[in-house]
Amino acid sequence: MRGTVTSGGGGRHDEMVRHLRLRGGALDGMTWSGVIDVGKRVCCGTGVWSKECVYVVTSDTTSGLDGRVETVAVPAAF
After folding, report:
1. pTM higher than 0.85 for the full model?
2. pLDDT digits (tens, 9 = 90+) for 12-22
3. Which residues pair with 63 in a beta bridge?
4. How far, rounded to the nearest angstrom, does the alpha carbon of residue 3 sit from its chain's CA centroid?
5. How many other β-carbons are positioned within 10 Å of the β-carbon of residue 26?
6. Percent of the chain having pLDDT more than 90?
7. In angstroms, rounded to a whole number, what is the distance separating the alpha carbons of residues 56 and 74?
């Protein structure tokens, strides 16, 4: 499954817009863009909030299909 989910932002000034590559969990393979910092949790789903849509932003990066740098995010533990 591939797809893109975006956030409206509204983060702090020390956070930056990141393009996330979601690895593992229900949204594996999808991308998400928004204002989020490394080590923070983010809900990447498009519907009602659920634990399955919460990912943690890592410091690992990868290259997207278009060459854009993507930060890897993994499912959050509860």
Report:
1. no
2. 545 678 999 99
3. 69
4. 12
5. 15
6. 67
7. 5
Q: What is the pLDDT of residue 16?
A: 75
CB 47 within 8 A of CB 71: no
Contacts of 36 (CB under 8 A, 6+ apart): 7, 11, 15, 18, 20, 42, 57
| Annotated domain spans of the chain | 4-75
For 42, left (φ over 0), alpha (ψ -120 to 50), or beta? beta
* pLDDT given for residue 47 in this prediction: 81
27-57 core/surface letters (b: 16 or more CB in 10 A; e: else): beebbbbbbbeeeeebbbbeeeeeeebbbbb
Q: Is the dihedral of CA 15, 70, 30, 4 positive or negative?
A: positive
